[in-house]
Write a structure and sequence with these properties.
This protein is 46% helix and 13% strand. Helix 3 runs parallel beside helix 4.
């Protein structure tokens, strides 16, 4: 026996032949390749794998589309959901409706929104009284008249008191509305009054002559171009416009006298369009006292819990109005500037 045979260092194992026999997988593939019809088998496996991948991709695509659809529907429901006043409360409370900004059709202080909120407030059995919280410089006499008439009707129908509380200002059309309240409360520095009507605009006839611009206006009707800023105003048209303003002014005066009654201390300036501080308005009978919303709710109404019924536009409505109403906005703005205004 050769002792060298037991020494591993002396008899190293031969290195594996990497180029020799194939591995099991390679052998299987080779065997498959050598089998008859192996091309068809490989193609079938590739086709089935491709179908599985397409099905998986389609399922994920459907999943993501459904997820986006659900998210979109939820967003639409949220945007179009009502952001209006609080729902009816069974507990006794003071209902408040805000009247803020310009009083005009389509505005937050439009007759449509304010009347809808007032109706909800008056119809709530838990509302002990309704407070109209005012901060407005005025606006449309038509919108103001509609709100005033509805307040009178709701008060008679529901036998429920309504108070007006003024913040910074309650002028012109805003005071037209406030006159329907049972009592008006103001801050000592509030601006109150301005009982008058105006119609403003511009005349560019002189400027056009200096620039050599010719105005070409065709009308059917001798007064159809009345108040056109690029045409001169004749005395007849001016007198007619003044008569119309006087008529609206008398309607305003009648509403104030009817609403304030004997509390109003008339002077030669009462209906001249002047306005006063809240402190002076109380002395003139245009207001009944000094007070804020919380003070009136606590001390006058006797229900400290205040519930807001103000009707507000939701996001979708603002979006639709911004982009939908932009068509023809210039013409509407021009027409509105020529309408009588209580401000």
């Amino acid at each position: 026996m050769n002792p060298m045979d037991n020494n591993p260092q002396q008899n190293p194992q031969p290195a594996p032949d990497l180029w020799g026999q194939p591995t099991t997988a390679a052998a299987a593939s080779a065997a498959t390749a050598q089998a008859p019809g192996w091309e068809r088998s490989v193609l079938e496996r590739l086709a089935f794998d491709t179908l599985r991948e397409q099905r998986a991709a389609r399922r994920w695509k459907i999943f993501f589309r459904l997820a986006w659809l659900i998210a979109f529907i939820a967003l639409v429901i949220y945007l179009f959901s009502s952001e209006n006043a609080s729902s009816a409360s069974s507990t006794e409370h003071t209902a408040v409706v805000e009247l803020k900004g310009e009083i005009a059709s389509g505005a937050d202080a439009s007759a449509e929104y304010v009347i809808a909120a007032l109706r909800t407030a008056f119809e709530d059995d838990g509302a002990k009284a309704v407070v109209l919280l005012i901060n407005s410089p005025g606006g449309s006499p038509v919108q103001a008249g509609m709100i005033n008439d509805e307040i009178v009707r709701l008060k008679a129908l529901h036998k429920k008191p309504m108070y007006a509380v003024v913040e910074e200002s309650c002028a012109s059309a805003a005071y037209y509305i406030a006159a329907a309240a049972d009592s008006i409360y103001v801050d000592k520095a509030s601006i109150v009054g301005s009982i008058g009507v105006l119609m403003d605009g511009f005349g560019f006839t002189g400027t056009m002559e200096k620039l050599g611009v010719e105005r070409r206006l065709l009308t059917a009707g001798s007064n159809k171009g009345m108040l056109d800023p690029f045409s001169p105003m004749n005395d007849k048209q001016k007198a007619y416009a003044q008569q119309m303003l006087g008529q609206i002014h008398q309607q305003f005066i009648s509403v104030v006298r009817q609403g304030r009654g004997e509390r109003l201390k008339e002077t030669e300036d009462t209906f001249s369009g002047l306005f006063w501080t809240g402190q002076e308005a109380v002395k003139l009978g245009l207001a009944d006292g000094l007070g804020s919303l919380d003070q009136v709710a606590r001390d006058v109404v006797g229900a400290e819990d205040v519930v807001d019924y103000t009707r507000r536009e939701n996001v979708a409505e603002r979006f639709a109005k911004k982009f939908g109403a932009s068509v023809g906005a210039g013409a509407v703005s021009t027409m509105r500037s020529m309408m009588p205004s209580l401000r």
